[in-house]
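Section 5.1 Outputs to date
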Amino acid sequence: MAGQPWNRVNIPFPGAVSSVRMNFNSTTDANIKTLLVEKEKVLKLIRSEILQTDIRLLYELLYILNNSFRGNKTFKGLKQVEQCVNRLKNMKLDVSLQELTDLCPNRIQRGLSIKAGKCDVPSQPMLEWLCLKVLGAAQLMSCTLNRCSRAFILSKQQMKWEEFLILNVVITSMLSRLWVMFRGILVSLSTLYQQLLVFLREVAHAQPMPFLTDFSLPADMAQFLCPSDAFLLIKQPKHDSSTKDDKEKQQKKKKSSVKVKSQGQTGKVKEDLGIAVERGTNHDTDFKPFLKVVRNLTEDKYFLRGTYKADKRQKFKKQVREATTFADMAAHLEEMILWCRSQRMEKERRLLTFLRLKCHKMTCLEATGYNMQRKLQSFRQEACWAASPQGPAPRTCRSSAAVRRKNRLRTQCQSLRSRFKSSTVKTGVKNKHLKRRRRRRCELSMSGLSETGQRSRTTYEATPQTTNCDSHDDIDDIFASVGL
């Protein structure tokens, strides 16, 4: 695409005569007049104050958000819009269109040329060069529209997340205005291109001077653009029904005014104020039967929806069991994924999408000649579970990351259990040793107490006898000293 002549910023100007003299008549006059009118529309849109104001606002926002929003996706989308605007300025389309105005004869010159039969008009190389400019500008406008739409969606997404609400309101309003104005420029460029081709054929027929030899100009702008952008060139029909209704209302008003005037001439107009209608209002009405009917209808609706989903799942399971190859399985999975998306069954859709990827891999292996019947049997179980995920998932239906995570947790738990067991064993051995030591200490303490008791008893028994003997001896000595 970069090698195409229309995709250059500075398209080389043809080194040929920019104007030629040819026969001039009323049809040529009409073609030049319509060409100048379409050219003025494009220049008016490009030079409009509203567009320039929004472009200045875009520059100001990018200047302010350059540091704080450098990694933001909305900011990157705005930068892409800025690049398209800068490219439009650099290609100087308005200057080229102004040169076309200078080369075409004005109204007075066209009137004199009709009488003379000759006139100077832009040459074929000049018109072809201008057609390339218009094609490049149209492609740039379509790219700018896509960039504006993408930045608008990103800014709207941030608004849903409740982030920078005021800033995103300003950005979305600016982008919407830019989109509308750039679409208007694209539509006006399309009509200008059509008129350029009409005038180019006439000039080439009178003075053939081909400039483009390797590139042929498309017959229509819609053929040049992609289908999504070509749809923008179709002018939406105006509200014909509303205009018809307005015309009918105006006609009715006219008829009614005529009738009123005629009646006013004959006599006074009697206004019909209507008749009061008595309606029997019973405030004691019971609404329970009506509510019961509504409740029954809603219950029947949900019941029918549940039965419909159950029937669809049973049908899918039957198709899966009857599938003999992975290619048939892939077709059934694709159909079920679309149905789950329509029913907003996100969990089932994700599981079936995962199985569809596996099924494509198995289909490739099956096409090379491998026997995949055992895999197909296990795959049937996975597909049946994914259609109605209840209970634990099959091992093969789990993702590899989840399996690795579970194995890692299992090994960690096992290591913790082994550590706990070893610690309990060690503490048990220590407790046994402590109990044995305590028992020995108790036995030793008991034996020591018994020996000391026996010793005290023997000393106790020996000491009172000696005391008695000594006491008797002392008394005898006392009585002997007295003389008794």
